[in-house]
Amino acid sequence: MMRNCIQPVYKKVSIVLAACLLCFSVTACAKSDNIMKPYQPMGYTKDADASAEAVYTNDIDKPIKRLDGVADNTIVIKDDSEYDLTDITAGQALLVNLTSGEVLLSKQSLTAIPAGNFTKLFAAYVVFSEEEDLSRSVSISQDTYNLSSNLVRCKFQKDETYKLEDLLYASLMYCANDAVIALALGHPGGSISSFVKEMNELSDELNLKSTEFSNIYGYPVSGSKQETTLLDVFTVTREMLEKYPEFTEIISKPVYYCTYQSSKNAPLSVNWNASLPYYNTEENYTLPEHLYLDLVGGICEPSSCTPSQICCVFRDYYGTMYLALLAGCTSYEHCYEQMQNLVLHIPAIY
């Protein structure tokens, strides 16, 4: 009879002890630096007093967390066989957690590829690193810069005046080749050759051994090199994300309203839409909801270009930022289909 009385009490005590141990374990884990603690995003911090809706504030001086035992500005890329590439049919792919430096997927990311539209990232890096005033005016030196019609997007006219900031938006967000030329000719030195030289010098400073430029258009010219790797593209993009908040602002705009001066000093305006179809309601591209991903932005090749390249920055629910790069896609549509597959390799954190 005594046994019958003790057993219920014993069970209750056991349940209480188990609950206490569980609470202690969860508390201990939350205090340690592991996945249960929200990641600290690169360049952003979550406002402690924010409501349920995530609020982020600039903290550009906050360093990126590195993997243990890995030098600063270094990421570890394993052999392709170490990654699940079954759904990645693009020629090259790279997906990196910018907060931790962890490479989530890599496919031929060390292989030399035509620089293509990625050239605009390196050109922007020259401007950001050497220009102190992005509101400085730049005068267009010639009509559309004698580009072939398929490379003309802004349709500049001689003696129109734009700000450097305007030309950066047109180059990065709108993917305009004529804007890159305007940036080069408006840069100290005033020539395309001197600007290309600076692109190569800055690439050397970043120790990008596989990147070389012969022009600012991105397209290879017979007898000269115009190539890079996804690892090098990652490096220069990360540098701009870390150092220049204006870069993040530019690539995240769905549309830019530009006011400029005509050749007769009359104020005019034009709108440039982002080349990313994630901003286009006519396109059926959606991000997986279970990953809590929030698109920050990116650049891509215009739809007329094949093969297509794309650079995107994503942020999850906790503010962790990811850089996704693709090259060697067979079409514009294939490029975005592959981006959809690539982001599925970002782990869901609840």
Rough outline: globular
What would CATH call the class of the largest domain?
Answer: Alpha Beta
Stretches where pLDDT falls below 50 for ≥5 residues? Answer: 1-71
| Class from helix and strand fractions | alpha+beta
Fourth-level CATH superfamily of the largest domain? DD-peptidase/beta-lactamase superfamily
In the CATH hierarchy, the architecture of the largest domain is: 3-Layer(aba) Sandwich
Overall pLDDT level: 78
Number of domains: 3
Spell out the helices and strands N to C: HEEEEEHEEHHHEHHEEEEEH
Termini gap: 49 Å
The helix tally amounts to 8
Kindly report the CATH topology of the largest domain. Answer: Beta-lactamase
Biggest sheet record: 5 strands, antiparallel
Entry keywords:
alpha+beta, two-stranded antiparallel ribbon, 19% strand, 350 residues, 8 helices, 3 domains
